[in-house]
Design goal:
467 residues; alpha/beta; ten-stranded mixed β-sheet; two-stranded antiparallel sheet; globular
């Protein structure tokens, strides 16, 4: 382990070490957990960080560090920042036209789509079916009436301050937090610390005018897709962070140095190639989104055009792009260690702190699985045990959340939770039996309950295994 105050970014073998942090919205919680393990347990200190979208937000926090002690502090800060981001109104704001539709069927539909419809299904279950089509004359009339009640709000939205109709939200609350902190709980980021010598930062952005991939550097310059050739700048580094996270249609693009930029994940969600071009030979690629697409059993011959389009672009095309991004040509001697989730725990705009904490623990354990000094068979067993822990904990969280919302627990609820907690305990013990560590406080995963809003309802025993 590096001594406090020592910059050991080259690693013990003299290799230049890099973190590559992928995009994925608040799925970046997995990345935060993996980073905590890499920094705290393995004392990895990067000399290069390349990132995209949500990974760029993580990278900006970490890139303020140069020594091991600083990096430990920033990794913990990142953990806290991401938990603060579960308060979505403090993270991003609605465009004025959308805010004018609050409380209407259209406004509720948008809110439900962004938060609820983007949350992954329970592990092992098929994706939720799209809302059933309205059939019958009575339902058609009811739907028409609901839309009719929204019409005055639509007119007011068009007459009022419009913002940008090309996006649903803005990132201005996040911009304010990154620049000055405040009530959000997100700590401010200091561009002067990021710009110090000793670390190369590249944040992927898509130039909409020139139609190319570029990167924003630690000192605010914009470079070409080769991660080296100067194109423009310098610009505000924090504007580069925001541009890298500006998902098209959800957030407006950001003007920077004569062009307009959006989320770099449209071209390169896992910028391994940029790390290679900067001379990194020891690369840790930390992903937020599973590489493999879960099988979808819906009959796409009968699906809507929108459903087919989303599956093809946000599903198949994105998965293939991730694989391509992860596997560029590598110089001899270069290693890429991939730390990736298999279970999809949170949505890209998650608001439940319990699921975020669970995903962080998942990232920590997966990093431990990947870096453990064990044979391949033991590693496969460890990976399977970790996934079993996460599946059981995720199912338990959803079951508990239903109990919290209901305000009481039935005998059936208690039995179901007892069985899930026993699965968690057994899977953790399986990992320990293989010599793999778990995060501090793991016993609480089965001897207590996951994090939820509000006090525990009546009818739940203090120890779920006693239920």
């Amino acid at each position: 382990m590096a001594e406090d105050g020592e910059n050991d970014a080259a690693g013990s073998d003299g290799a230049t070490t890099a973190f590559v942090l992928a995009g994925g919205g608040t799925k970046g919680a997995f990345e935060a957990g993996a980073i905590r393990y890499l920094v705290d347990e393995e004392a990895v200190i990067p000399g290069v960080i390349t990132a995209t979208s949500a990974g760029s937000i993580c990278a900006a926090v970490l890139a303020q560090a140069r020594t091991h002690r600083e990096l430990v502090e920033r990794a913990r800060e990142l953990h806290d920042d991401l938990l603060a981001m579960t308060h979505t109104d403090l993270l991003f704001g609605k465009q004025p036209w959308l805010r004018a539709l609050e409380g209407t069927p259209i406004g509720r539909a948008v809110d439900g789509f962004v938060i609820d419809r983007t949350r992954p299904p329970l592990p092992g279950e098929p994706p939720p079916a799209p809302p059933a089509a309205v059939t019958g004359w009575r339902r058609r009339l009811e739907a028409a009436a609901r839309l009719g009640r929204s019409f005055p709000h639509v007119l007011r939205a068009r007459r009022g301050p419009k913002g940008q109709f090309g996006s649903l939200f803005t990132l201005e609350p996040l911009a304010e937090a990154l620049r000055g902190g405040g009530s959000s709980g997100i700590r401010p980021v200091d561009p002067a610390l990021i710009g110090r010598p000793g670390l190369e930062l590249r944040m992927a952005v898509a130039a909409l005018g020139d139609g190319v991939l570029r990167y924003v550097t630690q000192d605010g310059n914009i470079v070409a897709s080769d991660a080296v050739t100067h194109v423009a700048g310098p610009v505000d580094v924090l504007e580069g962070v925001l541009a890298s996270a500006s998902v098209p249609m959800l957030f407006p693009p950001r003007p920077l140095a004569g062009d307009v930029y959006a989320d770099g994940g449209v071209a390169n969600n896992i910028p391994v190639d940029a790390a290679v071009r900067l001379g990194a030979t020891r690369i840790f690629a930390v992903l937020a989104v599973p590489l493999a697409q879960p099988r979808d059993t819906r009959d796409y011959t009968k699906a809507s055009g929108a459903t087919v389009f989303l599956r093809a672009t946000a599903g198949v095309a994105f998965a293939e792009r991730q694989l391509a991004n992860l596997n560029p040509p590598l110089p001899a001697g270069t290693t890429v260690t991939v730390i990736d989730p298999v279970v999809d725990v949170v949505g890209p705009f998650e608001v439940s702190q319990g699921l975020m904490l669970l995903d962080m623990d998942y990232g920590w354990m997966r990093a431990a699985d990947v870096l453990a000094d064990v044979d391949d068979d033991t590693r496969r067993q460890a990976v399977a045990a970790t996934d079993e822990v996460v599946v059981a904990r995720t199912r338990a969280w959803h079951h508990e959340e239903a109990v919290w919302l209901a305000g009481s627990a039935s005998p059936g609820d208690r039995r179901a939770l007892r069985d899930l907690k026993a699965r968690v305990r057994d899977a953790v013990n399986d990992r320990k039996g293989l010599g793999l560590p778990t995060p501090t406080g793991a016993e609480q995963w089965w001897s207590g309950y996951e994090a939820h809003t509000g006090p525990a309802p009546g009818g739940l025993p203090p120890d779920p295994l006693a239920g």
